[in-house]
Amino acid sequence: MADDRTFLTTRQGHPVRDNQSMRTVGERGPATLENYQFIEKITHFDRERIPERVVHARGAGAHGFFEAYGTIGGEPAAKYTRARVLNETGVKTPMFVRFSTVAGAKESPETERDPRGFAVKFKTLEGNWDLVGNNLKIFFIRDAIKFPDMIHAFKPDPVTNRQEAWRFWDFVAMHPEALHMVTWLKSPWGIPANYREMEGSGVNTYKLVNKDGVAHLVKFHWVPKQGVRNLTTQQAQEIQGKDVGHATRDLYDAIERGDFPEWEFCVQLMPDGPNDHLSFDPLDDTKRWPEDQFPLLPVGRMVLDRAPSNFFAEVEQSAFGTGVLVDGIDFSDDKMLQGRTLSYSDTQRYRVGPNYLQLPINAPQAQCPFATNQRDGQMAFYVDKGGADAHVNYEPSYLGRGLNEAPKVEKEYHQPVEGHLGRYQPTRVSDDYAQAGERYRTFEDWEREDLIANISGDLKACPAELALRVVWHLWHCDQDYGRRVADGAGIDLEKAKALPLLPGKPAPGENRKGPTYTD
Ligand code: HEM
């Protein structure tokens, strides 16, 4: 390896004896094309950037480990899941975590008001498990087909390249399901003090499956041992004036001084099935599962104890996806989860390249044997170890050569599915105002004040008819919420209240049950 060399070389291993001057004909003369050393250096530099992530471009990462407690709610974890990472004790599963903001570009300030991404890669003995979530436990929308529109509205204006409040609220006004997330986001919870003092959550609903093939619906959450701390807009502005990378700095500094951040990993569980008796749809990611009905049950802990040795190789090239599950953890029919699962690996094949899973940061851990018949493609630099019989890169083989299928699991989980193919209103129960109102009422006074000031400030920059509709929505979440925002933004509340229902949307408080096709 070239790593132990003490002098500079080219990538071809040739010593670089002068790194200060190009080769030229004479002191002032033209440069020549045969100057390999110069060309290698400059042309590699020309290619140093890969596309930044289309969302969550600004981030920081850290390595660590996960340890399972082996129990869930006082019972053996194996009762709920056959995933060894959750039911075996005494195993330190290596992990990599990437925290991020959503809408900002790669070098944007970490003080921005934005959900924080909380993406976790467990390198388990049974293969990788990625949990790609956020700090607010819910999301703006519940049908994946809306994601590009949402992100377009939240990212900069295509004409001016400026983020505009009116574009954000214009989208939200047409999506009452976003009001719950927006209520969190515009409060101090929209600016966590740093990455260590924030919660995390898988947001979407998954399933835990045990060895008998019995499934439970599950939500995953990270509870920080450091506690939760958020910032007001003013506090964030003061930090941003001095440091646009304060959260990365905070994370790295804590690890360096041995103050390793730690989170407890918890689940909320409910039996698999339609759960019709609930006042919300457990597959609707714009709703929280109330913790008094579905308590957080600890299953293990994660500790981050090592900063990356190179930002680009480990953080920028890391690739997380919701499709990356281990046996014993399964998909639910949450439509966002299903849509996301296509999107992540698709963008990574473009962003990093088709062999992105060969990179050390993304490959399974060394103790987990992996072997595919995938070959070639840009930047392939090894053939899987399991392909010892290098002639047979196909399966099955009559001669019994090459790789064989893995043994079957004892009881596969088979979800019954029946229905009419069509486009549906996404949930069977959609009171999109109730949880937003509850959230408003449970905030502390200073959080409510910051929330009101932030939304009122935004609405002053919005066209009058849009501001009226936003106040109408907020008033239906909670009358005090709507009134205070109207007062703060100088909006006539009575005029807002008199607006007709939004065409095509359920009335506030209305629960829709049964199929609602749109075509
Ligand atoms: C990143 C798509 C919803 C959390 C990304 C990326 C894409 C994407 C394309 C860039 C990935 C990369 O370049 O490696 C989508 C789509 C969604 C969706 C299509 C909805 C249908 C969500 C939701 C959450 C979320 C609901 C939170 C629970 C994240 C996080 C990252 C990310 C944390 C950054 C991962 C990292 O650190 O590399 N998303 N997303 N996304 N998304 Fe989503």
Automatic annotation (TrEMBL):
Entry EC no(s): 1.11.1.6
Keywords, comma-separated and alphabetical: Heme, Hydrogen peroxide, Iron, Metal-binding, Oxidoreductase, Peroxidase
Residue ranges with Polar residues bias: 7-23
Any one Gene Ontology BP term: response to hydrogen peroxide
Enzyme class: oxidoreductase
Active site: H56, N134
Binding locations of heme: Y344
PANTHER family attached to this UniProt entry: CATALASE (PTHR11465), CATALASE-2 (PTHR11465:SF23)
Entry protein name: Catalase
